[in-house]
Amino acid sequence: MAIRPILTVPDPVLKQVSKRVDAVTGETRALMDDMLETMYAAPGIGLAAIQVGVPQRVIVMDLSKDEEPKAPRFFVNPEILETVEETQTYEEGCLSVPDFFDEVERPLKVKLRYLNYEGKQVEEWAEGMYAVCIQHEMDHLQGTLFIDHLSRLKRSFAINKVKKAKKKDAA
Ligand code: K1U
Ligand code: ZN
């Protein structure tokens, strides 16, 4: 397992649409293992493969609290089959837009279909934080960042903040 560098805005790779995975192989599992280690190290609660520069439809997530045992989840080729009309608003963050947070409104519940770590197909409803996080991560697979849900002014502010921080770190 290895910690991989996480791409940050305005890296154009983050705008790519990721490709479906043909089958869950040892290579896919090695990618998911690296992504999980990278996510835990960041730390974060979710990560899409494109954030480590791999344009595949792969996501890892762990919504367990600090005091709870780790509960990693793996999603290959996730699809949203249904959504409810009711929405929830959550103050989101993103490892690719470090140190910037803002509210995004999304459907409260989504029905998912995906392949898990073993390559088995799963269908289930996600709600609450699970629904927030999977929708945020699935946006990454389409090249969409949570700041794309905000006004142009807020989006430029966020990108400029990250650019400035990167310049400062490089100096
Ligand atoms: O970059 C990402 O996609 C991961 C992102 C996931 C996410 C967070 C909040 C709402 C929707 C999606 C993060 O993990 S940002 C970091 C974060 O939320 C966090 C970090 C440490 C402890 C708890 C949360
Ligand atoms: Zn993100």
Give a verbal description of the structure:
- The structure is a single chain.
- The chain is α+β, with helices and mostly antiparallel strands and about 170 residues long.
- It is built from 3 helices and 7 strands; from the N terminus they run αβββββββαα.
- The protein has helices at about 25-40, 130-140, 150-170, and strands at about 45-50, 60, 70-85, 85-90, 100-105, 110-115, 120-125.
- It has a 5-stranded antiparallel beta sheet with strand order 1-2-3-6-7. A two-stranded antiparallel ribbon has the order 4-5.
- A hairpin with a 5-residue loop joins β6 and β7 (about 120-125).
- The longest helix has 19 residues, at about 150-170.
In brief:
The protein has 171 residues and is an alpha+beta fold. It has helices at residues 26-41, 129-141, 152-170, and strands spanning 46-48, 58-62, 72-83, 87-92, 102-107, 109-115, 121-127. Zinc ion binds at residues 94-96, 136, 140.
Overall geometry comes to globular
SS summary, helix count: 3
Distance between the termini: 31 Å
| Strand and helix order | HEEEEEEEHH
Instruction: Estimate the helix proportion, in percent.
Output: 25-40%
Residue-averaged pLDDT = 98
Strand fraction equals 25-35%
* Number of DSSP strand runs: 7
Task: Give the strand order of the largest sheet, numbering strands 1, 2, ... along the chain.
Answer: 1-2-3-6-7
| Helix-strand makeup class | alpha+beta
Which ions and ligands are bound to the chains? ligand K1U, zinc ion
- How many strands, which pairing sense, and closed or not: the largest β-sheet? 5 strands, antiparallel
| Low-confidence runs of at least 5 consecutive residues | none
